[in-house]
Amino acid sequence: MAIQDTFIDPAGFSPPGKIRPTQWLVSLRSIEEVEIAAKYPIDILDLKEPQHGPLAPASAELWLAAAQSVASLGERAPKLSAALGEPDEARTVSGDLPTRFDFAKAGPSGCDSAAKLVQMWDDVRDRLPATTELVAVAYADHGAANSLAPESVFELAKQAGLGRCLIDTYSKNGKSTLDHLCPERLSAIHKLASQLRLWWALAGSIRIGDVDWLGQQNVRPDCIGVRGDICTEDRTSPLCETRMSLWSNRLAKN
Ligand SMILES: O=C[C@H](O)COP(=O)(O)O
């Protein structure tokens, strides 16, 4: 899958017409997993605790250990991201995030109006380290989360000065983002992100076989986020290195 439009890249905006590969985000829950993941060409290591919810935070101790581990990799260090939980928890824990983290994301559940969502983003941004970029999260099953539809989240993110959005699922019940959002809608969201010059990531029970299908549907996210599909069983089970190699080979072809 090649990105041929003009998008933001991690360092800023790509020049028009530049083709670049889809980035790969992997969610991790322990320092052992961070060390395994460091062997693969992962763009973003995302710390979260899958047992406690879709975007539950890892412990502050793990944040610190991951920051130290990634710093030791020098120039080949991937970016670091942290899930902060849903709004109340995100407001509480965001002040503890080490400055080494490039990105943080807060779940929007319960933010059923533009005012509530923007207020939550403002509160969290006020507490995060100045160098950590807040990523707007939209849930594909937003009705279950009592939050706004992805299109509204993307528009509001742009207005609020956020440059990145991630779509995930609130319910981790086997239904993927692709079950909740039809191809036409995902393609329209891709176009919207392009028009707004937003970097966007697609997550939510995405399987490796979905990568080809997405390209065929003209859905070309800047980044694909995975957890369940690189585990031995469900998303709370250990990492499966065979599956990580499959993903890494598949994304290398993009
Ligand atoms: O941010 C990405 C998520 O952790 C994806 O998790 P999942 O593939 O298990 O839905």
TrEMBL record:
Q: Which residues form a coiled coil?
A: none
Q: What is its EC number?
A: 4.2.3.153
The yes or no answer to whether the keyword Iron is present is no
Renumbered to this chain, the signal peptide range is: none
Which InterPro entries does the UniProt entry name for this protein?
4HFCP_synth
Active site (catalytic residues): K48 (schiff-base intermediate with substrate), K105 (proton acceptor)
Q: Does the keyword Transmembrane helix apply?
A: no
Q: Name one GO molecular function term.
A: lyase activity
Catalytic activity line of the entry: 2 D-glyceraldehyde 3-phosphate = 4-(hydroxymethyl)-2-furancarboxaldehyde phosphate + phosphate + 2 H2O
- Could you list this entry's UniProt keywords, alphabetically sorted: Lyase, Schiff base
- Spell out the Pfam families in the cross-references: 4HFCP_synth (PF04476)
> What is this protein's function?
Catalyzes the formation of 4-(hydroxymethyl)-2-furancarboxaldehyde phosphate (4-HFC-P) from two molecules of glyceraldehyde-3-P (GA-3-P).
Q: What is this protein called?
A: (5-formylfuran-3-yl)methyl phosphate synthase
In which organism is this protein found?
A: Rubripirellula reticaptiva
Output the lineage of the source organism. Bacteria, Pseudomonadati, Planctomycetota, Planctomycetia, Pirellulales
